Automatic annotation (TrEMBL):
<keyword id="KW-0479">Metal-binding</keyword>
<feature type="active site">
    <location>
        <position position="184"/>
    </location>
</feature>
<feature type="binding site">
    <location>
        <position position="183"/>
    </location>
    <ligand>
        <name>Zn(2+)</name>
    </ligand>
</feature>
<keyword id="KW-0732">Signal</keyword>
<feature type="signal peptide">
    <location>
        <begin position="1"/>
        <end position="19"/>
    </location>
</feature>
<dbReference type="InterPro" id="IPR001506">
    <property type="entry name" value="Peptidase_M12A"/>
</dbReference>
<keyword id="KW-0645">Protease</keyword>
<protein>
    <recommendedName>
        <fullName>Metalloendopeptidase</fullName>
        <ecNumber>3.4.24.-</ecNumber>
    </recommendedName>
</protein>
<dbReference type="InterPro" id="IPR024079">
    <property type="entry name" value="MetalloPept_cat_dom_sf"/>
</dbReference>
<feature type="binding site">
    <location>
        <position position="187"/>
    </location>
    <ligand>
        <name>Zn(2+)</name>
    </ligand>
</feature>
<keyword id="KW-0482">Metalloprotease</keyword>
<feature type="domain" description="Peptidase M12A">
    <location>
        <begin position="84"/>
        <end position="283"/>
    </location>
</feature>
<dbReference type="GO" id="GO:0008270">
    <property type="term" value="F:zinc ion binding"/>
</dbReference>
<dbReference type="GO" id="GO:0004222">
    <property type="term" value="F:metalloendopeptidase activity"/>
</dbReference>
<keyword id="KW-0378">Hydrolase</keyword>
<dbReference type="Pfam" id="PF01400">
    <property type="entry name" value="Astacin"/>
</dbReference>
<feature type="binding site">
    <location>
        <position position="193"/>
    </location>
    <ligand>
        <name>Zn(2+)</name>
    </ligand>
</feature>
Amino acid sequence: MAPVFVLTVFIAVLCSVQGRSTGKASFEKSEEDMEIDSTNTNSIKEEDFSASTLIEKANRNLGKSLDEPLVMFGDIAVNTGFMNADPCTASGCKWKKYSDGNVYVPYVISNQYSAPQERYVIESGLQTFAASTCVQFIPRTNQRDFVDIQSQSGCFSYIGRQDNGQVVSLNKNGCVYLSVVQHEMLHALGFNHEQSRSDRDSHVRILTQNIMPEMEDNFKRINTINLGTPYDYNSVMQYGRLAFSKNNQPTILPIPDSSAVIGMATQMSPIDILRINLLYNCSRQFD
Ligand SMILES: [Zn+2]
């Protein structure tokens, strides 16, 4: 698992709210917060490569273009007529398991990614799944269902397998990072955000008064299937404490220890990996 990560939420939040308030005001607020949080074990560095921060930065202006799917829950795309994100994995949105015990998820990577480095990051991210689970992303040949990786506006994915090709957007300017590739592919495999879990109120407190009004849907609780796994602050699906904050005050606080580090994962946690293996009944033992 990743080493202890330093917290850089404040700088990240500066970026993520600039479009919604003046940069100056945000910066002043964030400095105040830095002082408050200096009591934590977290320190600050200039860049934050956690999935949560990267996605929020990339998505902060998302959802304004009419020809794109509606994006809710921060980076989850939904088709017209929002279905409650009930765990569809119980009713057919899992990917097919083959007789050899593997789950093959075909993918196409758009030629929008002209830089070799971009394709390398995406493909490396996809390959991490095969290293520790029975999910194998494979280049599409003629399969009906596949993930169609494109550089649309922001980072987003549908939840679970859709019929026919499904777009996973990894915008070239902000989403092409290992953690974001893993995060969006976990959505495509059927997983929701950690703070949406059915039992989240025992582990985090949602501070609605600090959430941007138009973003409150991101904090709805979902009747998830939790597979007997514990709530995981280190999940790559956990958002940071300042996600979608309108005032640089926390929107998600861990409980009972409000200073616990949350939402800083830069790669899948052991529990993220365990859940894939449980959901897809992977039989092979992985290290
Ligand atoms: Zn997400």
